[in-house]
Amino acid sequence: MRPMKKVVILGTGIMAVGIAAGFLATAHAVILLGRNTERAKSQEDEIVQLTKDMNPLWNAQEAPLIFGAIDDWSDWSDVIWVLETIKEDMALKKALFAQLDHRVPSNIPIGSNSSGFPISKIAEGLPTAYRMFNAHYFMPAHIVPLVEVVLGEKSDPQMGEDVCQLYRAAGKKPVLVRKDIPGFLANRIQHALMREALSLVDAGIATPDDVDTAVRYSFGFRYAAVGPMTQKEISGWEGMAGASVEIWPSLYNVTGLQPVIATLIANGKYGMKSKEGFRTWSDEEMKEMRRKYNARLKGAFDVLQIEID
């Protein structure tokens, strides 16, 4: 009988819940560690429900969900991956990685789901920094296929490739980011788009709703089928090159927040969490939009699953 593949997840927030469900649904045992065992176990119902939504045939005996406390856990048998998802606090992350450095056997790779802190800084000065990586998910973690595996200054590239293979076996679409730069890969592209979109709104050229419509029903629609590089392979690079002569010099290149978004934030208008952003949100509207969002993501995932399979 083959040893059970185990994944250890440290943290009990929304990302940890989705990540745990994704591994369970693909026949990996999950050890969820929180500040204490009770805190970890409090997430059981939600994780189990998400897992069953993803894989109705999930067998808890073949892929069990185990709970424990971060500071007390010592069983690393058959563990293939350790992933930290705790609060975005550099001091806390560095302290935790310093513990993991000597507590976790050196053959087991360790990742951080941090979206803002580079693994080079989190693992700075640690003897086993070679087996440490960023492993950045996107919300909701159980639906969005991408995981960015980022090499730090000391990370072993081959071990990084092995982590990518681990994620492929778990039904994800990993990319290996070969240099530890701000924003990694996807967020750099996403922020480039957001900078231009917000600048267009700030200049009064388009409304937020118009920006959403333009993105969703033009290149966003196409990108659900293929990425931007392949799309231009299809349509022809010479067309893009010709348009770039006119467009690129006119793109906004601001380095600070646009006044329109700075004003929103200064006024406490953060979006749904404050019930107001560019527009106001009732409880019913928020519930319905989140339902639509998750349903659309699930529909997109089902289409992409053809390629993943």
Topology:
Blueprint (H helix, E strand, L loop, with lengths): L5 E5 L3 H12 L3 E6 L2 H5 L2 H11 L10 E5 L9 E6 L5 H14 L6 E3 L6 H4 L9 E6 L8 E6 L5 H13 L3 E5 L8 H17 L5 H9 L2 H5 L4 H8 L1 H11 L11 H8 L16 H26 L1
Parallel strand pairs: 1-2, 1-4, 2-3, 4-5, 5-6, 7-8
Antiparallel strand pairs: 6-7
Helix pairs in contact: 1-3
Task: From the structure above, extract its key features.
single chain; alpha/beta; Rossmann fold; N-(1-d-carboxylethyl)-l-norvaline Dehydrogenase, domain 2; 8-stranded mixed sheet; 13 helices
Question: How would you describe this protein?
Answer:
The structure is a single chain. This protein has helices at residues 14-25, 37-41, 44-54, 90-103, 119-122, 157-169, 186-202, 208-216, 219-223, 228-235, 237-247, 259-266, 283-308, and strands at residues 6-10, 29-34, 65-69, 79-84, 110-112, 132-137, 146-151, 173-177. It has 309 residues and is of the alpha/beta class. The chain folds into 2 domains: 6-177, NAD(P)-binding Rossmann-like Domain (Rossmann fold, 3-Layer(aba) Sandwich); 188-308, N-(1-d-carboxylethyl)-l-norvaline Dehydrogenase, domain 2 (Orthogonal Bundle). It has an 8-stranded mixed sheet with strand order 3-2-1-4-5-6-7-8. It is globular. It starts with 5 loop residues before the first strand and ends with a helix. The mean pLDDT is 94.
